Amino acid sequence: MKRQRHGKQVLAVLLAFCLFLPAVFSTPAAVPAADTGLNSQMTPEEQQSYLEMKLRQTEKTLETLGKQSKDTQAYLDALDQKIGYLRSQLKLTEQKVDTAENRITVLQKQQKKNRQDQAALQQQITDTKQQITVLDAQFQQNYQRYCQRLRAMYISGETNVLAFLLGSTDIGQLLTRYEMVARVAKQDTALLRSVQTEGTRLEQAKTDLTARQKDLQTKKTALAASQTELEQTVTTLQADQKDLTTRRQVLTGQQTEANRLLKQLTDKTKAYTEYRDVTQNDLDEIDRQIEEAAKKYTTTTTTTTTTTKKHTTTKHGESAGTTASTTKKHTTTESKRLRLTYPVPSQTRITTAFHGYAGHSGCDFACASGSRVVAAESGTVIVSADLTNSDGSYRSYGRYIVIAHDKTDSVGNSVYTLYAHNSRRVVSAGTHVHRGQLIAYSGSTGNSTGPHCHFEVRTPTASYNDCVNPEIYLP
């Protein structure tokens, strides 16, 4: 029995170890946005209804927690969740406004073209009417002449023409008279053809006039319908813009309250972190700056990497061959996974973990202001900059640094690290730094509740969407 029990215990330990390994060595996941539970297959109306329902649930949770204490992480988490739903609602409303504005632009362009087409048609109708007047006058004139000729021919008859020819006194007179008859016949034929041609042109002009008048009426009807839609869309837009303003005010108020409570809580716990009011527009703008810098320094980083690989250091009294033999196993192990050093040597405890709150893209190390911030691994500084508002105050990451590292991860992907909220930066873009080299002093610039280092790892690109859990690479 004891052996069986011992065997089960060993088996349980082995099973737990097997379950633990994938969690440690699995490929890190990218940072998700706050999970609102929205389904892309939902219509905008269904999404709004769903968010309203989730907001009512969150309000009940906040009411229950608030009766106990608002100065708790649980209350703050619920408030963050509410803010996430409010942001989603705001985004849907912004999309409605954008859709309405785009539709108004399309309708206005269509109306402008419609009016231009109407003006052109109206001019064509005027020209066609004038053409009909001229053609009708010509037709009537030639038609009357032709009728007169027919009447004359009918009265004279064919015998008169024959008598006219036979009454010639000589052959010369006969030929002259015959020529005169032939010429009159030719003129009669030309007159007939002229009447036929002018009649055809007149009928075609009338047909064209009818078609253009019909086309003009169609465009007038379309313009009236477009104008009705435009007026309705403008009314909808005005309502949506008013709704958007209200939602922005509500969101701002909730963010202010969340920031106040977060500041109180972090002052109490000293686990300083970020305020939750960074917008997607901010992140997109920062992403563009970092990606441009990454492209700019790609060549420099590649060159440095090649040089670093060629350089070999050996201990005194050992040959290069001995060193290679001794470190072969160590190098093989290290190549499986990039190992980084802690960005703040004096603080190795993570105070806010990756995903510690919705959208948290790194790890926070709360530390005294002015603590040393070092490069987690050798590489090239691609960004060393300050993010400021129009009034000169810091925003978002504040004074931050990004390093493109010489080493890659286990599958050969590039690795970037970011260090935010510093009080002072001591390296500039383009500088090559070694592992553990001083790059900045910690602070609380940007959307920070207190002195700490916000540390991110990004792979395979420098994009915010490629942020992964830094703990995977830390000791």
Fold blueprint:
Blueprint: H1 2-25, H2 44-68, H3 73-166, H4 171-269, H5 280-296, H6 298-310, H7 320-336, E1 363-366, E2 372-374, E3 379-388, E4 394-405, E5 416-425, E6 432-433, E7 438-442, E8 452-458, E9 467-468
Antiparallel strand pairs: 1-8, 2-7, 3-4, 3-6, 4-5, 5-7, 5-8, 8-9
What does this molecule look like?
- The chain has about 475 residues and is an alpha+beta fold.
- It has 2 domains: about 30-270; about 270-305 and about 335-475, Glucose Permease (Domain IIA) (Distorted Sandwich).
- The protein contains 7 helices and 9 strands, in the order H-H-H-H-H-H-H-E-E-E-E-E-E-E-E-E.
- It has helices at about 1-25, 45-70, 75-165, 170-270, 280-295, 300-310, 320-335; strands at about 365, 370-375, 380-390, 395-405, 415-425, 430-435, 440, 450-460, 465-470.
- Strands 1, 2, 3, 4, 5, 6, 7, 8 and 9 form a 9-stranded antiparallel sheet that branches.
- Helix 3 runs antiparallel to helix 4.
- Mean pLDDT is about 80; it is low at about 1-35 and about 300-335.
